[in-house]
Design brief:
125 residues; mainly alpha; 5 helices; globular; PLipase_A2_dom_sf
Length: 125
């Protein structure tokens, strides 16, 4: 079973909406906790458990890109997609690369469809 299936897409969507409503706790460098997932609700531990921990760096860079608003959302998402693909291609086993690519593809779809919710969102927004 893949990390991000349809049920998880729905759960993440609800979490994003809830995060926006409760205005999650801010850290010192960003309006949100940096990582893979909205606000404090990350899937970082799951990625590490799957041997895909290197993807977290891509998520952190994507969060920072959304925060600083220097690039468009599409440019941030394109950079995110490129980073995820590169990290997946660096994995050693063929099987790991395949599963990573599936998970990365789902993560890319998620930010492209729902990223507008948090793109350039001000801390008190």
């Amino acid at each position: 079973m893949h990390l991000l299936n349809k049920s998880l897409f729905i759960i993440l969507y609800v979490i994003i909406i809830l995060k926006k409503l409760v205005n999650a706790t801010l850290n010192s460098t960003s309006r949100r906790v940096l990582g893979c997932g909205p606000g404090p609700f990350t899937i970082d531990e799951d990625l590490i458990g799957l041997g895909q921990g290197s993807l977290i760096e891509c998520c952190k860079n994507h969060d920072l890109c959304y925060d600083d608003c220097k690039l468009t959302q599409i440019e941030c998402d394109d950079n995110f997609a490129d980073c995820l693909r590169k990290k997946c291609n660096e994995l050693k086993s063929f099987k790991s690369r395949i599963f990573c690519r599936i998970d990365a593809s789902n993560m890319i779809k998620l930010v492209r469809k729902l990223g507008f919710i948090t793109y350039c969102l001000q801390p008190n927004g």
